Amino acid sequence: MTAARELGSGMLEWDLGAYPERAAFSADSAEMAFALGDGRIAVIDLDGLEARFRAPHEGGSCMSLAAHPKGGWLSGGDDGRLVYTSPAGECTVVHEVPGHWLEVMAVSQDGGTLAVAAGRTVLVFDLGLGSMTEYGPHQGNVSGLAFSPAGGILAATHVGGVSLWDLDEPSEPIFLELRGLNLAPAFSPDGNFLTCGHQENAIHVVDLASRKVFQLGGLPAKPGQLGWSLDGRYLLHTGTRAVVCWPVPECFSQNPEPVAFAVQEEARMTALAANTRIPFAAAGFGDGTVLLAELKRFTAFPLGLDPVSPVSCLCWSGAGLHLACGMEDGRAALLDLGKMLSEG
Hints:
Elements: E1 2-3, E2 5-8, E3 11-15, E4 20-25, E5 31-36, E6 41-45, E7 50-54, E8 62-67, E9 73-77, E10 81-85, E11 91-96, E12 105-107, E13 113-118, E14 121-126, E15 131-135, E16 144-147, E17 153-166, E18 174-187, E19 193-198, E20 202-207, E21 212-216, E22 226-228, E23 234-237, E24 243-247, E25 259-261, E26 269-274, E27 280-285, E28 290-294, E29 299-302, E30 311-316, E31 322-327, E32 331-336, H1 337-342
Antiparallel strand pairs: 1-7, 2-3, 3-32, 4-5, 5-6, 6-7, 8-9, 9-10, 10-11, 12-13, 13-14, 14-15, 16-17, 17-18, 18-19, 19-20, 20-21, 22-23, 23-24, 24-25, 26-27, 27-28, 28-29, 30-31, 31-32
């Protein structure tokens, strides 16, 4: 086990000893976990505050992570295995796809459906029934997955566009043609818009009712992660030297002017997590800075972390009051937002 270090009001830090690839919170927000580059999972109880380690992908890398609604964790690795790790630490292989890296994963908002990309195919698991359905093949390897807010539609990005699968009536997907390699799909909170990044430093915004597409081009870097403000008014993305908020749907009727704040002199944003309960977002940068951004007043302040290593992952708890942070040098941190605000 690894004990926590207190960094200040509401901030704790752990040394996990390996690169944190992904972060996740349990369904009841009582635990957080990190998928580590050495094949382990670090699980931290928010009451006990000590990190316990499991090894579902021993000898490889743990590349994706999600909470199981009945407790425990589901992880994908470069060993081609989807593994369930029970609360007691027992590891069971759920499915295996030899020769594939299971690094692209998405989970529905209610936590009951899990999607994992395996090359050109997507595997969708009903975690309540214990069933699996295959979707595809797509015209290229699947680079990103996202569930609609209601959970009935699954978006899969790949070369040439986005495939929209109706999970209630499986048939042929709706195909949105977008040339080049598309990635990082994200639905707006009301489900009316779908956005995805593009390898050519651009973002596509799709009005799902009209199928109109607007392109935000000329970005400073590839937008590897996208997020929406709580009210669905603004779109955020990584790859910038500030917190940048693009107005939607104004982009379809006029040239959009983004709101940019909390400018960083050199480092670009490497990780992003929008809060689904309160109008905040967390932004991590290549110099190790983590900003808590308030999306109503467009202000931000840094958390009390030593900025010595790039931020690799960020994740909010379901209740929106805890933030998990992972840094490339093997550190992990927890922000208790309620405690920090109450103590000033």
